């Protein structure tokens, strides 16, 4: 006997969808040749619990077909339900508006409804009665109820509701008392300070991290919508007191910009830097910052104050290599002896016997310096008065940074690194889960996204050089020239300014 573990679908074989509904939940299973491919279940909301038995069964059918639409669309399949009346739904003459919407949705599919006795529909029946277990870990929020109430008080929202009821708009629709806009975004009415509270959540909270206007708007637009949202976000960010107090002054360096070549794939080329001279926090006194130059994905690693190359290699393996693999190149403004020792120790930790050599390339892309500035700004926002709890903030800081949309790639680091945006408090509270595309479709879309990101990176690099060079002067040093090298006194305690002689390399 073969164990009923899930397996991948065979698109050359017909599908079967088995569904069932109970008084409080619905469930279903997608099958081929009697073998399960996917399971699905959810609770019924308060409105759905008042449905008739037939309507609950049809809710299960519609929900399962919507969940597995990417598998079922364009293929013939059978839907099996244990309610006799439901099996005649396709030929039903008189329909309520709700049933008419269902039938309109089901018209997209080439399917046949069949009756299956309840005692043989055991899998779907069990799933429809397991909602209590699923509900244990589902966060509850009063936000949705406040939004429902606010729709009745906002004049603009009431006008939109009239258009929806009259069928005069496709940009908005009503579901369970919530008004949705294109992209499954919740319409937030102007009522009871709702909009400002959501702005605070997507800007002030630790997971958001006080981003700028562009990134705050991107976070808001994932889950919410209201007219003139851009103007409201811009006004909120510009008047944020914390941002005004903690922002860093930007100073343009000298010399023309020499940008590096754009990597061809994620995790091929990384930049690395340290934030040092920090107050002791959980035994650490510095932060190792590693940034993938393609996806812009950043990793923030607490490190000892005097972190040597061997310790850096151990941290690099633990926090980067074991998840993403070994990069082809690491860019750092540290001494070449440091990076050489790091590579040697990394290969030793991996148990490799291969010999390699490192070559000196005096270059930097400034990527980690910019990330360092953003991280330091984040820590200033949320660190306590004694500044000794910064290590506890690094995980949330990393989450916050990587979900922000990058202006150079047009996508967030999370999206480019993993193929999708992570679930945030916004999506949990709003209850929106989205659909799960097929694996092959996801892989194809991920490839296209990365190709677009590379094109965007090349375009952004050219634009950055053109803009930066306007604010720089071309400085040419000749061998033998005396120059001043400005050092950070906190990193080089014995010197503040050093005099050096230019040597030809």
TrEMBL record:
Keywords: Coiled coil, Endonuclease, Hydrolase, Nuclease, Nucleotidyltransferase, RNA-directed DNA polymerase, Transferase
One Pfam family in the UniProt entry: Integrase_H2C2
Ranges annotated as spanning the membrane: none
One annotated GO molecular function: nucleic acid binding
Top-level taxon of origin: Eukaryota
Ranges where the Integrase catalytic domain occurs: 262-421
One BP term from GO: DNA integration
Claim: Calcium is one of the keywords in the record: no
Sections of the chain in a coiled coil: 443-470
PANTHER family given in the database record: PROTEIN CBG26694, PROTEIN NYNRIN-LIKE
Name under which the protein is recorded: Integrase catalytic domain-containing protein
Originating organism: Prunus dulcis
